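User: I'm putting together notes for a lab meeting next week and I want to include a structural view of one of the chains we've been expressing. I don't have a solved structure, so I'd like a prediction I can at least talk through. The sequence is below, exactly as it appears in our construct file.
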Amino acid sequence: MKPKPATRDIQKRLLTIKEAAVYLGRSVCGVRELIWAGKLPYVRFDRRIHLDIHDLEKFIEENKTAFIY
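Assistant: Thanks for the context. Below is the predicted structure for the 69-residue chain, given as structure tokens.
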């Protein structure tokens, strides 16, 4: 029999706006602005808005720039 994974071993895929703001190092208002501008897709459960961590990773990768002297 396989042991069941501990609850703490399971990572969340969907984050609240507040959690996403901490993850991105932005304010809650800043994340809301990104959502309203269509730059971040979201998942809606009833009145709650969640952000997929994979979309946040994609957003980070697409917005990276390199400074060239």
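A couple of points you could mention at the meeting. The longest strand covers residues 48-52. The mean pLDDT is 91.

User: Perfect, that's what I needed.
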